[in-house]
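BUG: 3D viewer hangs when loading the predicted structure for this chain

Environment: internal workstation, default settings.
Expected: structure renders.
Actual: progress bar stalls at 90%.

Input used:
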Amino acid sequence: MELLIPRLLKIPKNSFFLFGPRGIGKTTWLNNEIKNSLFIDLLQPDQFRMLTAKPERLKELAYGNPGKKAIIIDEVQRAPELLNVVHSLIEEKKGYQFVLTGSSARKLKRSGVDLLAGRVLNMTLHPFMAAELRDKFDFEKALSRGLIPLVTMSDDPDKVLSSYAALYVREEVQMEGLVRNIGGFLRFLEVVSFSHGAVLNISNVARECGIERKVIESYISILEDLFLACRIKVFTKRAVRATVQHPKFYYFDAGVFRSLRPKGALDRPEEIDGAALEGLVLQHLIAWNAYSGAGNSIHYWRSRSGTEVDFIVYGPNVFMAIEVKNTACIRNEDLRALRSFKEEYPEAELYFLYRGNERMLINSVLCVPCVEFLNNLKPGGIS
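Structure tokens produced before the viewer hung:
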């Protein structure tokens, strides 16, 4: 496999934050896209010490390299005080473009992002999309190992994936002092994996972990701040049927979900495969939405009676209801939830994604092989 895979995210002209989890390829992508930049790596102890001791040295570096108008500060969350200097340099209007990368938004939530609001864009890099890998996209490997570039490009992807969560806990959670009970947090990572693709019941997770509910809520927020997980809310616009109110939970990558999900004699492989498939579709939808810049929102729909549609994509120019099934054949009952949604929202386009090979239109439901849908999902539309 080639060392560099072109990404679908486009470099803006303005300064921007580039967020994303560890191993997602932020630095590699920037070094390829932005030539002749001033690169500051805050993971390097000498640069970290120099700039945290005296943040004003950032100005000295900028003034000392007049030919480099693009200034990349890698892992900026390690020194949020630098953002005051960034703000000052932007206000000088000397043509600087700042690219501020981060694998955690926790330290930046209050000071940094708010400070630079309106001056710096917020962007996120996600795991590989099928459309980026093209003929290198292996659907079965994506389901089992996910699409984190650090894993995908490794000579030993299984080993890297198995240690990925531990690396995060050590380098982001433990070193930054985000939690007091590391053992409890590791237990939580396993327990909450059973909620991947399901309505999140925090009380149940707390009970299984033997940890207070408010602590579990903080743990989930930590996962979101580290870009390791997300919650999607129920779709309620113009709702006629009563719907549930709790969000659904997903790890950000199908491979990470599999690496954390305990497996035992009572676990059915098809159940884990189905959750991984659903998560793989969602991570593609999230990346597609972010790279398109269309301002769509992603939800799920579930009535009080239990009728559920996996994903609702809603925005100015799109309204899609998507059901994902880990099956090679289509049964009439598989389409029932989409039809129920159509009764309430006749404007919606209906998609049924499955493991079969045929593309069919069945009573207004477009049934598409999942691998085909993922390959055709790219900024600008779905073909």
